[in-house]
């Protein structure tokens, strides 16, 4: 997921001696009633649907109810229902339960200790075919006793560039936009510390986990970094679960990624390399990999990662539990500067802010405490970062994979996230699965097209297909896209797919999956009062006038929309030339001649004004005291006749 991800908050891993991975056993855990989600609210844990977060609209679509302006703290804590996944997995011992007496084979050694490579499929439980039995999550790690314990970066430690190599390191940085010099110094099969929370190594997983095809796409990836990514998969995954590792070379320009890579990987029969004959972009490259994948589950990984011990089984366990679960590991941080492996703060969810910027957000401490959320608890995620996840292969194709209209990369994580949630699936972060990732500030490779333009177009496409009436929020926060008149291409197929899959509305998604997102449908609503006259704008037949305010008069209710319209039902107040009177016009969010600027920080001197946007000289809506009419006049920042207040404001 080059570039698109925000960096989660992280801390250096406490340095440990090799093999010192003993962890305290998890305490006794009471099983919650099964098949419900724990919801978190101000009142505490409860089950059921949360209240609608948005104010109601009248029949004309104008927002009339005044939602209480609650203090932010209250709001935040009240809107964290549904963060946790179901605490019980299934009738059989699930991954969140304390180790039950294992029916499957147990790995030897002390609890929580890492073990060397174990090969072979665990024997099926002897009890019955319906209950295949479980085993403690395997601690496969071929790097447990590293070949060279003194090598640079061993055990995930930071490496310093020698004084006489500074210039070389600096000049090589651009090869990958991280410390390529150091990457080349570090063993491709280095050991890293087990960063899993206490209790993870005790968890039970089923003996009949599905197999997975690992798909890694890359363009011009740094040799040592790509190799380390592949080695980490091979070194720390139970071999019987890896159907194959598919490397998709998206038309790299580097010679070493051709025959040399083929030759190197030929020593690992499970590694397959797909050299694409032209640049596909990340999205289509992933599809190329998915199409040849033979495993039950697809696991997408970036090509600059290090999978940690026990990373795979917890992901596959969730997909086994429900094929509609999309399981993401916790993404840890491999420093781009010193290549150290750092853990991240727990309890982080993948979220987005408008206009669809992906980010990480910590679950508030009070919510964690109140609900006794444990570090090992699975976290439901409104959106995923996009680079690292496991998904049932058949389910992925049933969902229509990625929208084929999306180009190169950008926004595909939003698309798949909305699609999964709204069409019956779930996205989860599995704290017991951890994968390190080099977060880079910029893409090292050239973007085949105008990068910003591509990402914007992709996001607009996602908004058009998935956001319903909330797409105005997207455009309101990325207003330049409206001005650009972006062509998002044909949406017919995607809209058909949404119908065919009987996906829920975006409103449902907001209420049930991401209730803490601020998503008011309009910026302001209610009576529109003039400061000087204390009169209100009123619709009278086909025009607007200034009348005494009456909270019960529907003709005085207006919305100020994200697209900057002064809207009353289907009609909008239309600006006039300076000196003229405003009229009414059928609303059209794309018509710039209907737009007014109000409450905009871009024009602090006109915050309370209602200014005409499309004129070269700013003109403002003004109340004529004598004639009780409205007109457009040259803006005067101090004139109370040009100042207006809505009954309710929902956004700045
Ligand atoms: Mn990446």
Automatic annotation (TrEMBL):
Keyword Cytoplasm tagged: no
Domain of life: Eukaryota
Region Disordered, residue ranges: 1-135
E.C. designation(s): 2.4.1.-
UniProtKB keywords: Disulfide bond, Glycosyltransferase, Golgi apparatus, Lectin, Manganese, Membrane, Signal-anchor, Transferase, Transmembrane, Transmembrane helix
Places the protein is found: Golgi apparatus membrane
Names of required cofactors: Mn(2+)
UniProt domain Ricin B lectin: residue ranges: 523-647
Protein name: Polypeptide N-acetylgalactosaminyltransferase
Ranges of compositional bias, category Basic and acidic residues: 66-79
Pathway membership: Protein modification; protein glycosylation
Main location: Golgi
Position of the signal peptide: none
Membrane topology reported for the UniProt record: Single-pass type II membrane protein
Similarity comment: family membership: Belongs to the glycosyltransferase 2 family. GalNAc-T subfamily.
InterPro entries membership: GalNAc-T (IPR045885), Glyco_trans_2-like (IPR001173), Nucleotide-diphossugar_trans (IPR029044), Ricin_B-like_lectins (IPR035992), Ricin_B_lectin (IPR000772)
